[in-house]
Specification:
This protein is of the alpha/beta class and 518 residues long. It contains 15 helices and 19 strands. It binds NADP nicotinamide-adenine-dinucleotide phosphate and magnesium ion.
Length: 518
């Protein structure tokens, strides 16, 4: 097939321009007008409503029901696997060019409906306008990027040729994949994981997060509009604890592509490895999990840039990113000055309705998330000194004040455990070596950053800071497709490098074919 034009990242809309603000306000009003609708499952090529509804609420105003999604029964989950398995040979045989065209079309539809998707992200997930725009743009990027990568794998590097033979390598799909994304990038990560598996020729059972089923339903509508065959994907909404295990252990499940917490990822990995009657393969598990990401602030660095990087990384989307900075490790020589400059910046962040662009931060995702973060704040009071925040913020939404603890010891829970909210631990390091040792003192290894003007320190960080995504003199969030392939070390995951040139290999297997020449 003809190569596609070169990939480039989708540009972000500038919401300081009146026309862009107006377009976003209009989209928010349109999406609000569509609140409360009911969404069906999609199983075996047909819409199914079970009468058992999952209600998704607006975390900025939890009395507002964004939509209700039908929940799958165990029998429907099993049917979803069986039917996508039955359809797999047909989708696998569909020419690569046709599969690629559907995914490129998906990107085009998302681009056309960008503000609408932004509005769903603001209202169902509590993203600020800018965070929502980045999420939708990333979803578009994943489609465009993986479409191009599939073209590459369909035209692999030639092999050495044995005299008298024609020697070829073909990358073919695996089978049925269960795709299980989290709620925190409810469009980008869901879309990226889904289209990566599909474009390779796998069929997919998509089990979205129970927090954000409406965005999942909206994305799946786009796939149908783009021409995806109705049986290539099943949308199997339901609680992970009720239907997750069933989907994973079904003997027809060939791979699981998971992004979420360490607890669930390790559970899936364990279940997937268990031999079972009828199981004909070692299931592949791609599991991208949590983080306890650190930013090191060296004695000699641009301290204002470091403060700005820490604030953006720690409190963007209320700290609910796997890449969020939750530990600032600061050289003793600048520790006091760092805190002096950090405190007003954090205390100046405003918290309120995500739909109102005047606020710097919106709500956390749910009442239970807020409860669990507040419990960590109580733990933090015993483990460190409270610099700012430490409480819920006013309003009916799940609002929390951005919170900073200082003098947090490396042995504490605040330093070691993923909180997944707007809580930053600051720890003093004796010198740069100590800072690196502290940064690496973690079971996780997802992102990390270093602010330093000392070339030797940057070089040491490059070598010894053991994270999948290292950033030097910049913040540790905001990975871009094709630019910062994303995935973590240690218990942060399988280092799958989403948005990178190797990602699709996880959903393909290589077949070597040697033909004796006459
Ligand atoms: P989560 O609670 O682990 O849930 C993730 C997904 O797993 C959801 O769809 C969930 O469904 C499902 N699930 C739960 N139990 C299951 C089971 N027994 N079997 C199969 N599926 C099951 O994580 P989350 O709260 O959505 O997301 C936040 C976490 O994701 C954080 O730890 C964050 O660091 C991580 N994350 C990592 C990356 C990365 O690239 N490394 C990116 C984003 C987020 P239900 O909603 O129905 O429970
Ligand atoms: Mg919700």
């Amino acid at each position: 097939m003809a190569p596609l034009p070169a990939f480039h990242n989708e540009a972000y809309a500038d919401f300081s321009l009146p026309e862009n603000r107006q377009a976003m306000e209009t989209a928010l009003a349109q999406v609000r007008a569509a609140f409360g609708r009911e969404y069906s499952l999609w199983i075996a090529g047909r819409a199914v409503a079970t009468g058992d509804w999952l209600r998704s609420v607006n975390p900025s105003h939890p009395s507002e029901i964004v939509g209700s999604h039908a929940k799958a029964t165990a029998a429907l989950a099993t049917e979803a696997i069986a039917d996508t398995a039955a359809f797999f040979p047909e989708w696998a045989r569909t020419p690569v060019a046709d599969r690629v065209a559907i995914i490129v079309k998906t990107a085009a539809i998302l681009r056309e409906r960008k503000n609408e998707f932004n509005a769903w992200l603001v209202l169902e997930a509590g993203k600020s306008w800018a965070e929502a725009e980045a999420d939708t743009a990333e979803a578009i990027d994943f489609c465009e990027y993986y479409a191009r990568q599939m073209v590459r794998w369909a035209n692999p590097e030639p092999l050495l040729q044995m005299p008298g033979e024609k020697n070829e390598l073909e990358y073919i799909p695996l089978g049925v994949g269960v795709v299980i994304p989290p709620w925190n990038f409810p469009l980008a990560i869901l879309a990226g994981m889904t289209v990566a598996a599909l474009v390779c020729g796998n069929t997919v059972v998509l089990k979205p997060s129970s927090e954000t089923p409406v965005i999942a339903a909206k994305f799946v509508e786009v796939l149908w509009e783009a021409g995806l065959p109705p049986r290539a994907l099943a949308l199997c909404v339901g609680s992970g604890s009720e239907i997750g295990d069933l989907l994973v252990v079904d003997p027809q499940t060939r791979f699981i592509s998971f992004t979420g917490s360490r607890e669930v990822g390790l559970h899936i990995n364990e279940l997937a490895a268990k031999p079972a009657k009828g199981l004909k393969w070692i299931r592949r598990v791609v599991a991208e999990m949590g983080g306890k990401d650190a930013i090191i602030v060296d004695a000699d660095c641009d301290l204002d840039a470091a403060v700005a990087g820490v604030v953006a990384s720690a409190f963007g989307f209320q700290g609910q990113k796997c890449s969020a900075c939750s530990r600032a490790i600061v050289h003793a020589d600048v520790y006091d000055e760092f805190l002096l400059r950090l405190e007003p910046k954090v205390a100046g962040l405003t918290v309120g309705d995500a739909a109102d662009p005047a606020f710097s931060m919106g709500p956390v995702i749910s009442a239970s998330a807020r409860q669990s973060i507040l419990a960590y704040i109580e733990i933090g009071r015993a483990e460190g000194g409270l610099l700012t925040g430490g409480n819920a913020a006013p309003g009916d939404g799940y609002f929390l004040a951005p919170t900073v603890f200082t003098g947090v010891p490396s042995t504490s829970r605040l330093f070691q455990e993923e909180i997944f909210g707007p809580v930053l631990a600051v720890t003093k390091a004796d010198d740069f070596d100590h800072a690196l040792a502290l940064a690496n003192d973690s079971d996780y290894g997802l992102t990390g950053a270093v602010y330093s003007n000392v070339p030797d320190h940057l070089e040491r960080a490059r070598r010894d800071f053991h994270v999948g995504n290292l950033y030097l003199n910049r913040k540790c969030t905001g990975a871009m497709v094709g630019v910062h392939p994303f995935g973590g070390f240690n218990l942060s995951g399988t280092d799958s490098k989403a948005g990178g040139p190797d990602y699709l290999l996880q959903f393909l297997q290589a077949k070597s074919i040697a033909t004796k020449l006459p």
